[in-house]
Write a structure and sequence with these properties.
With 228 residues, this protein is α+β, with helices and mostly antiparallel strands. Helix content is 49%, strand content 15%. A five-stranded mixed β-sheet has the order 2-1-3-4-5, with helices on both faces. Strand 1 and strand 2 form a beta hairpin. The longest helix is centred in the first third of the chain and has 22 residues. It is elongated and about 70 Å long. The N and C termini lie far apart (67 Å).
Amino acid sequence: MTIKKRDDSAGHRKRLRERFRRSGLRGFHDYEVVELLLTLGAPQGDCKPQAKAAIKKFGSLKGVLDATSEQLQEIKGLGPKNIFGLELVREMASIYLKEKAREKPLAGSPRAVFDFLRQSLGGLPKEVFQVVYVNNTNKIIEAEQLFQGTVDQSAIHPREVIAGALKNHATRLIFAHNHPGGSLRPSSEDIEITSRLKKACNAVGIEVLDHIIVTTDGYFSMREHGLI
């Protein structure tokens, strides 16, 4: 009986992969995509129950990919080994989006910055402050995390921001941080620290283009709303 069940699982995984080779993910249910990814880290055994549980818990394929490793492992039967495929795809997507964003000028587009940052910031459980370093043709040079925790007046030092700009030969900067709670509205501290950092950067000839708040579902641009 055990052997038959194992054979059934192997046959099911083979059929999923053959479907993908024929037509990509067209016609796949979300749980089948998750199941296919789970098989990368679990070469034997049935991954369908865990895949269905993941979709039920996180609501969609996007929700599963946005979930942290710790959150995924709250599902019975998921551990460090069989979530390998999910982690791999998430990291590859992050790298791809960043490299794609570097290929073309941002042209002052907050949406382009959001697309660049959403994988690295959108689903984080803690608040993280990043600086995106930009050259004089509005292309991204690099993004660097400066602080993790609640952003307040004492958290971010202008000297660190300016030192990073000089190190990366950046003439322009974009600040970004996430709101894990999902709110897109900036706090009074967000606005105050942006003003303080902008004044310090302007004093040494570095332009601050924007401060963008990122969540899993969207963004808030301080420049678009006249706050910078």
